[in-house]
Amino acid sequence: MQFQIVRDAIVSVLGASAGALPTERQFRVIGYQRQAEDAVTALVASVQIFYNTAAFPKSGGTFIGDSVKHNAEFRIEMTVAKRSKGDLSGLENATTEGDAATALATFFEAAQVVDIYMDQLWSDVWNILMDAENETYGLPTGALSSRWIESFQKDQPSPKGEIVILTANARLSCSVDEEVEGITGVPGSNYDVTLTDINGDTEQKTGVTGELGGS
Fold it and tell me: What is the pLDDT of residues 146-167, one digit of tens each?
């Protein structure tokens, strides 16, 4: 369906554009094959696209039509992770309040770094997807319309051992026309049935099952 083509086009545009950013702002787009696997670095950022919800308004098609309007929504998941400067064991093994406060501060600093980086990541993603040059994400004119990023929500930083992770998500909507192509039927197969009447006589019946599916 057309929404699948649009989803893949969004991934391709994000992946290509992410690689053109300054090194410190580059991010990985999940599913974009030309990007190498991330090395273990101090800061890792990734973006993933999911088809989320859809609406098919009756006003956008007919029961016997070959095309219907599909208002699609895609969820943009963003993740930033940073290794804290401190040692988790330093916090666990602190013997004084001062040692504990020093170790704890490193995790607060890491949380602030991922928060600031998330703001930059969101800014880059928004600018890429809303750029006028990317109006159809590389697809032919008319492939989609009314594309719009409707919302953004950031979660709370989450420490995972010595790593601090921050996630956020945004919603991108657009309209596409879906062609109703139907499904090719599956050919039936021969069957043999033995019938027994009330007098005990039997009769062999052979036939063909009907076609499954069909447009």
Answer: 999 999 999 999 878 778 899 9
Cβ neighbours of residue 40 closer than 8 Å, sequence gap 6 or more: none
Query: Using CA atoms, how far apart are residues 202 and 199, in angstroms rounded to an integer?
Result: 9
CA angle 52, 54, 58 (to 5 degrees): 175
Query: Is 113 in contact with 135 (CB distance < 8 Å)?
Result: no
Task: Please list the helix, strand and coil fractions of the chain in percent, rounded to the nearest 5, in that order.
Answer: 30, 35, 35
d(CA 178, CA 83): 45
For the chain, domain boundaries: 2-181, 185-215
- Report CA torsion sign: 153, 125, 48, 180: positive
- Residue count (the chain): 215
